[in-house]
Each structure stands twice: as C-alpha cells, then as structure tokens.
Amino acid sequence: MASEDAQLIPDFTPEDRALAAAVAKFAQARLAPRAAALDDGGSVVEHLPALAAHGILGMNLPDSWGGAGASALALALAVEEIAAACAATASAVTAHFLASDAILLAGGDDLKRRYLPGAASGQRIGAFALTEPESGSDPADMRCRLVRKGDAYRLSGTKHFISNAGFADFFVVFAQGDASARARGIEAVVVERRSPGITVSAPEPTMGLKASHIYEIVFDCKLEEQQRLGPAGSGFKTALRALDRGRIEVAAEALGIARAAFEAARDWAKQRKTRSGSLADLQGIQWMLAEMATSLEAARLLTYRAAALRQAGLPFTREAAMAKLQATETASRITDLALQIHGGYGYSRRLPVERYLRDARALRIYEGASEIQRNIIARLVLQ
Fold first, then answer.
1. b/e code 13-28 from CB counts within 10 Å (16+ = b)
2. What's the sign of the alpha-carbon dihedral 13, 308, 263, 281?
3. Residue 135 carries which DSSP code?
4. Angle 347-352-356 (CA atoms, 0-180°, nearest 5)?
5. Is there a contact between 36 and 355 (Cβ–Cβ < 8 Å)?
6. Under CATH, to which class is 127-232 assigned?
7. How far apart are CA 330 and CA 369, in angstroms?
8. 3-125 with 127-232: one CATH topology?
9. DSSP class of residue 362?
10. Fold classification of 3-125 (topology level)
C-alpha cells in the first residue's frame, strides 16, 4: 500500500453521520411519502422550500459562502439518503450542486458574492447547461457560441436535457468562444434566467426521474464581461472539475436507489409465501439477494473512496469515474433483480420497484455515459 493510501480509507466523523441521519429523517418523513405522486405528474419544485429550510441546497458549499460546509463524505451519505426516498428530488438537488460548484471552483469573488449565498439558502436555484442536441458525450463539439461584441458578449445556441432549467434562477452555460481551439476555446458564463433572449421549452417526457424535469433552452442574449467564469478558454476545465464532483454525487444517487430496491426485495422475499414456505427459503432467491448485497457494498466502497480522496485534496478523477460507472451499472442490475423477485407485482405501479428501475436507468447516461467513464478510466490507468 502506498504511503498516501492511508488517506483513501473512508473515515466518517460523528458530524458526518449526524448530518446523514438528519437528512435521512427528513427524506423519509417528507420526500418518500410524495415520491409516487410526483412520479405520476408532479414536480420536485414542491420540495424546494423544505429542502432550503433544512440547509440541504447548500450542503456542497463552505460556510464562508452561506453553505453547510459538509465534508465530501457527508455529502455522499446525504445524497444517498435523499435518493433512497425520492430519486427525482436527489437529481434536482445534485444538478443545483453542479451549478454552484462551477461558480465556487472558477468564479471570482464578485460572482461568488452574487450567486453562492442565494444558492446555499435556496433563494436562487441553479442549472448546469452543458449538453446540446448534437453534442452530449463530446462537449468539445458544442455548437453554442459566445462571441465578443465590443465590451460585452453575445450568447447564442441551444442546450438540451438540462435539469432544473424550467424553475432555475441562473444557468451556468458552456459555449464555444473559439471554434478552432475546440476544447481550449470553450468558455463558461453565468446567465440570469430573466435575461432577455432566453426561451425554455416545456418539460421533456422522460422514462424515469419524471418529477425532476429536463428542458431545452435556446439562448440569444447579451452578457457582460463579469458574467464569465474564469480566464479565457478555461470553460472546459471548469466543466470537468465540476463533473468530477458531480459523478461522486451521481454514484451516491445510484446507491440510494439500489439500496431502496434491495431492501424492498429482501423484505418481499421474507414475507411472500409459497407452497413450501417463503420466497426467502428458495436458494435461487437467496443467491439473487447475495449478489445484490455484495455488488451494492462494492459500489458503496468505491463511492466512499472517491469522496475520501476529494476530501483529502488528492486527485480523484479516475476514482469518481470508477464510482459512477460501478454504482450506476450496479443500480440497474439491482433494480432489475428486485423487480424479478417481486414477479408480476414488481411490474405493477402499485409498488415502487418499477419506479426504482426507471429512475436508475438515467444515471448510466447523464454526467457522462458509462462508455465515457470507461474511456476516462482507461486513459488514466494507461498513463
């Protein structure tokens, strides 16, 4: 074991566990009872005031900017608890984190003062606008343009599948400032939702995470110089740094969904009677539950390790990609097995298992598809 590996072992403090316990209590009392109804046609917007009141929307930010100053490990625990109760709410919360993280990582003090306290308090909800209709897994091919016009900029183009966009107060937008430079020409800017020249579509009809709506945004607006994040050409680097953090949170979302599905399957197997006893007496079911429990624990340890690296101030790009890949793929397998254990009842919308499966599926796509995570991991292990 390398000398620095001692810092890679997750070490939860009493404060970490207390925060996670408080979030779990809130999530089970407030979010879980509404999850099915919101999936059937509601919106996570109804939870925003309560999330704000409990300090959840600022967990990712330091107390110097009005946040809770939660550790990376505590943040992973908290996101897992939210997702176990309502994955759609967890998706909206982590999308908000992405936007405020980008400002925290690359913004000057003026931008931080203008946006971070409001983001932490929940008074200003953020959206992270990177994906485009023709540019998803390779953002360097983006068509959105940021062109200087005198002492200001003109932002034009379309962003697609953007979480929170319909109710966000600000967008962190990535656009090409110098197409010949590709990734090195990408800029990051903060855009006010009320700016003239912004059109947000109706929510996209989706398979899962249905209450956490995604939208298309069309930009044709003017921006002042002070709305740019970081120095010229640094936008792609900002996106990658924010996504590294976000991938740990997506992994934690996957853990929450997978845990809820596993617990539902375990409890169902114990109570569901067959001619010879309960489902849990059947070796085939026992093996399925053993596989689910083992893969869930493996994904959990990878996620916590990535969070521990981030917390220690060490590089964590590879580990975040590993955690997201393993946890999201695991969540898909566990939710599918959970539905199988429930049989026909699992396929019915009267039980939450089919929702867990639908919600888990999106996590293998957004914030870098599983194939992109494999590319990242391969590139880094081959260096």
1. eeebeebbeebbebbe
2. negative
3. B
4. 90
5. yes
6. mainly beta
7. 14
8. no
9. H
10. Butyryl-Coa Dehydrogenase, subunit A; domain 1 (1.10.540)
Residues 52-88 pLDDT 10s = 999 999 999 999 999 999 999 999 999 999 999 999 9
pTM of structure = 0.94
- Please provide the CATH number assigned to the domain covering 237-381: 1.20.140.10
State the Rg of the chain over Cα: 21
For the question of residue 15 being annotated catalytic, the response is: no
* Catalytically annotated residue among 81, 187, 253, 367: 367
**What ranges in 107-175 are assigned the alpha helix state H?**
109-121
Give the Cβ contact number of residue 346 at 10 Å.
23
User: For 86-111, what is each residue's pLDDT tens digit?
Assistant: 999 999 999 999 999 999 999 999 99
Helix 317-342 to helix 283-312 angle (10° resolution) is 160
Return the number of other C-beta atoms located less than 10 Å from residue 69's C-beta.
Answer: 16
* Cα–Cα distance for residue pair 27/87, rounded to 1 Å: 11
Predicted confidence at residue 1, as pLDDT, reads 35
